[in-house]
Amino acid sequence: MEYKDFSKSNVKVSLLGYGGWGIGKSIWIGADDEESKKSLNLAIENGVNFFDSAFVYGNGHSEKLIGEVEKESGKELFITSKIPSKKYEWPAADDSTLKESFPREHIIRMTERSLRNLKRDYLDLQQFHVWNDLWADDDEWKEAVLKLKQDGKVRFFGISINDHQAENGIEAGKTGLIDSFQVIFNLFDQSPADKLFSFCSENKISVIARVPFDEGALTGLVTPESTFPHGDFRNQYFGGNRREEVWRRMQAIQEDVAGETESLAEAALRYIISFDAVTTVIPGMRKPKNLLSNVKSIEKGSLSTELLKQLRNHRWIRNYYL
Question: How far is CA 90 from CA 80, 130, 159, 321, 322, in A?
Fold first, then answer.
């Protein structure tokens, strides 16, 4: 497993991280706790030390599972969480104020709640789960971040950037208080490479690449006939004729990557780690077989320069979350 420095520190985090949304047993339907714990343990055995969670992933369920596995493993992991907006809105509306969304007491209270779920004294990384750069100059969030760090409850602080808004966080990054950005980056949404990556490299801000498989589309397993469990958000995400469109685009990508990779999923992960600015990529991998497959893909390293140029043609600007 390859490791990279996190932000301006010498703390090492694994290039492959573990995305904890799917094990929360809500929105993504179908997780089994025993299977999830097997996958978490297998990740640790294979060198993964970066585990990303959030309070809203099952109202703390994901956090609790990760905390349990850390204690059982006896290993010291790099564990993250995220604070939901007090208004529980994604994305943050332009007319939402920081006072409504992230008042100082809410930032501190939700951090302490996550610590209780994890049974930990500190978080390696706490993140705003939604953001609006109109808040960048407001002192209230800065005071909360500094207090949490000074009290030893948070080592690093970051922003989980709104879906498909890669540059909505740069102003906050200029304050020097932001250690990382978590952002959607994949074969379809290539926009973070436009401006965000260079800003992060210049300022030593870590990049956590999320949604590497576009909620499953970039594994090649979403077909026109695909169905999802009742209550699963993918029924909306791949609603209407979206499955047909995804499938058509998958065939085109498959043709391009066939000579260099064994699968679309491998190509999707290796595309992301081909960018030096990326610190870690966090696919959901609640099944052990997917964990092992992702480890194998990461070990193969970057894609060739020629293929990377070719894959620029598959950039697809759209927002299925809306």
Answer: 19, 6, 13, 10, 10
Q: Is 54 exposed, middle or buried (0-12, 13-18, 19+ CB in 10 A)?
A: buried
Q: How many CB atoms lie within 10 A of CB 261?
A: 20
Alpha helices in the chain (DSSP H): 33-45, 61-73, 98-101, 104-118, 139-150, 170-173, 196-203, 234-237, 242-257, 264-273, 288-299, 305-311
Record the tokens describing residue 132, joined without a space.
């609006």
Angle among Cα 201, 207, 213 to the nearest 5 degrees reads 135
Q: Give me the residue label for tokens 């679309």.
A: 264
Fold of 3-314: TIM Barrel (3.20.20)
pLDDT reported for residue 322: 86
Using the predicted structure, report yes or no on whether residue 28 has a pLDDT greater than 80. no
pLDDT average, residue stretch 3-16 = 97
Beta bridge partners of 154: 123
Measured CA to CA in angstroms, residue 167 lies from 95, 181, 193, 194, 321 at distances of 19, 10, 10, 9, 18
- pLDDT tens sequence across 244-270: 999 999 999 999 999 999 999 999 999
Q: Could you give the angle at the alpha carbon of 165 between the alpha carbons of 164 and 168, nearest 5°?
A: 160
The model's pTM is 0.97
Cis peptide before 91 (omega within 30 of 0): yes
In this prediction, what percent of the chain has a pLDDT beyond 70? 100
Percentage helix, strand, coil, to 5, in the chain?
40, 15, 45
Q: What SS3 state is found at 134? A: helix
Angle at 99 between CA 94 and CA 102, to 5 degrees: 85
C-alpha 6/C-alpha 136 separation (Å) is 22
CA max distance for the chain: 54
φ, ψ at 61 (rounded to 5°): -65, -45
